C-alpha cells in the first residue's frame, strides 16, 4: 500500500509539473511561435531544468505536440463549450463569434489567438506538429460553418447552403483580422469593428436583429 501511495504521489507531482510547464509553453508559443518553443527556451522561461522538461516531453517535437493539445483544450473550454448552452444555429453561432473575439481581446494567451500565432510557423512544414495545428483549425472552421448551415436549415438566415460556406468564411476572416490588427497596433478597437461587421453581414443574410445583441462589443 505504501508503494502504491508513493507511486500515486509521484504521478500527481508529475501531472502538476506537466500542467505548469504547458501553461508556460502555450503562452510562450503564442508570442514566439512553435519554432521558438524549444526545451532550452522553455527552461529559461519557466525556471525549470532542461533535463526535467526533456523527461516530461521526450524532445522538442513531443513538447510542441503537447503544447498544441493543451492550447486546443483551452480554446475549446473558452470559446466552444460556453456556446453549447445555446441551441444549434444562429444563437450558438453569434455566441461562438463573440467568444472568439473576447478570447483574443482579453489575451487568454499573451500573443492573442494561439492558433493564429502558430499556424504561420507550420503551414509549409509537413509533419505531426503541422497536422495537429491544422486539425485544430479545421475543427474550428468546420464548427462555425456547421452552425451557419444549421441556421440556414432552420430558416434563421435567408441564404442557401452554398452561401452559408461563404458567410462562415467571411465571419472567420473578420475574427482573424481583428486578432492580427489588434496585436499589430496595440489597440482593442479592431474587435468592436469586427463585431459590428459581423452583425452587418448577418443582417444582410436575414438574421433577426434581436439575436445579434450579443455581438455588441462597443464597450
From TrEMBL:
<dbReference type="InterPro" id="IPR011075">
    <property type="entry name" value="TetR_C"/>
</dbReference>
<dbReference type="Pfam" id="PF16925">
    <property type="entry name" value="TetR_C_13"/>
</dbReference>
<dbReference type="InterPro" id="IPR036271">
    <property type="entry name" value="Tet_transcr_reg_TetR-rel_C_sf"/>
</dbReference>
<feature type="domain" description="Tetracyclin repressor-like C-terminal">
    <location>
        <begin position="89"/>
        <end position="198"/>
    </location>
</feature>
<keyword id="KW-0805">Transcription regulation</keyword>
<dbReference type="InterPro" id="IPR009057">
    <property type="entry name" value="Homeodomain-like_sf"/>
</dbReference>
<keyword id="KW-0804">Transcription</keyword>
<protein>
    <submittedName>
        <fullName>TetR/AcrR family transcriptional regulator</fullName>
    </submittedName>
</protein>
